[in-house]
Amino acid sequence: MYGQQIVEALERFRNGERASVSLVKKSKPVDETLNLLAQGLSLNEIAAIRGRQLGSVVSLVSGLVEKGELEFQPAWVDKGRQAIIEAACARLGTERLRSLKDVLPPEISFEEIRLVVALFRRNLMKRPPSV
User: Which of 90, 93, 97, 118 is the most buried if burial means most Cβ atoms within 10 Å?
Assistant: First the structure.
């Protein structure tokens, strides 16, 4: 079935032809996301452009926020919702998002919770240890 194609490929190789190496460097998802954020795009727009689920983009972004590699953007979560989520984090901790989701109003999404939890954790890490 592929005999003739293999023979032809071997003949081209014998004559000096080699496979070409693509020099186009693919952007890492982090770099691509940061670039799109810098362009002012929303998380929903970034998910659409990158062909990803919103949750995947939010997970990447929240990881960057938590590590201090990206500043939390107020446009991501309404100020009122942010305050409600932060209060729940202070009461319940940030280990289980499901526990937070269960006590928060149903209109607050897991994506909003994940982003605010990342900011909350980041702020906890920045605080000096209490003596």
Answer: 118
What's the length of the chain? 131
CA atoms within 13 A of residue 70's CA, in its CB half-sphere: 23
Backbone angles phi and psi of 77, in degrees to 5: -140, 130
Q: What is 27-126's CATH number?
A: 1.10.10
For the chain, report the end-to-end CA distance as a whole number of angstroms: 76
Q: Using CA atoms, how far apart are residues 10 and 17, in angstroms rounded to an integer?
A: 9
CB atoms within 10 A of CB 86: 16
Divide the 131 residues of the chain into consecutive groups of 10 and give the mean pLDDT of each group.
Answer: 86 81 66 94 95 95 94 96 96 94 96 97 78 53
